[in-house]
Amino acid sequence: MKLKNSVLPFVFLVVIVILSSLNACKKKEIVSNDPALKLSFSNDSIIFDTVFTSLGSATHRLMVYNTSNSRINISNITLGKGANSAYRINVDGEAGAQFKDVEINGGDSLYIFLRVTIDPNNLNNPLIVEDEIYFLTNGNEQSVSLVAWGQDAHYILADTHTPGFPPYKIVADSMQTTVWTSDKPYVIYGYAVINSYGKLIIEEGTRVFFHKGSGLWAYADGVLKAGGDNPDNPVIFQGDRLEDFYEDVPGQWDRIWLMEGRPGEDHIIKNTLIKNGFIGIQAESFLRATENKVVLENVIIENMTGIGLFTRTFNVEGKNTVLANCGGYCMAVTGGGKFDFKHTTIANFWSGTVRNTPALFLNNYFLDTLEQPVPIPLNFSMGNSIIYGYNKDEFDTDMDGGADSLYFFDFGMMKTSRNLSDETLFQNILKNQDPEFLDYNINDYRLDSLSPAVGYGSQAIAGQVPFDILGNPRTESPDLGAYEFVPGQGGGDER
To answer: Domain range spanning residue 414?
Structure first.
């Protein structure tokens, strides 16, 4: 039978409709709900480091990849802070803060454009403005971090990623001296590294803010010099959260890490406040025994979740040092070394968690790969100082007899249950007497007029540190600790 010409258009139309229906059904069927399918991204974080050069705004691109062979549906793309975010995203030409049911074919990709608008001269902004883009696909939530600078500052952004090391940026390379001034804050994102034979000088009044997990690291033979001679213009190391709530929150950043150095190139830190991190200062001989030391003068380390000052086979000299409120030790000396502290206040009133460690701990060995002790000589002295806190024992030792070791405390206060009658170790120590700090709840470790520490210090020791941590002169009857009582400072009658 032969079809008539008038029937052919109708037949073709039916065929087209059927094929279109089948094709539509096929497309619907290949959208996969497999929870094993996940998205891939061109970056796991987008850093807007050009905000200041583009009048407070910048745009970046993010590629979203579907590496599977199946079509997938992204049920939700949203900014973590929603409409309150400083960021805006554009998906398929549409701008907003949230998008639903965005499909990507197998082996295909999606462009997302991101924009941030910030006034860098607004001092109420955070130093770092963060958000996240969240993607929900077949029940899997994935995210990409968004980071932009919120204020005008010097930003140190990690640019090197080496396996086994935290992300870092070298700020003082070998044979290079770098100076940080107080003109603008320094914000560290990652680790700022002083390379071998490099030197970083941080001038007085400089503020250094660390992002979460960040730190400052002087590699072997690198040198750190921080602070000046004016106690009223200190260097400050702290976390980068500036909200009032974070003023005394510990654990906001990692640590200042100082490795071994060469003779005559000591790490020197003066008139400096270090607060709210994990470890204040970690000084350790890592590749070889150090030939230099850390010199601390008028330094406060407080509110560390771990340790205030942690050493491993190192040498430290401290004058007017305050170590306070740490979740572990205020000072942990391990692996021996040489230490001389005068007018130190160690006060541990940590209340964040249960603390089973003493405020001050001394140790003269480390363990080898077979967990056997390797003893190293320790020479430790502390004079005109206070060791106090919540615990029954705020001083403890763990010594190996295989190395000549000596510790000696002269003129001080100590909270301890141990016998202090051995005059080769302890002389002129007030045992278990409350030093009567003005207000340890707000880290004020000045002395009340009724404190037994007032006037108890050795004049000979005080003569080597004639001014206290605030620049007050010490009298003929000096006090214990880093602070000299000053009449009229509050907290009781004048003496």
So the answer is: 154-462
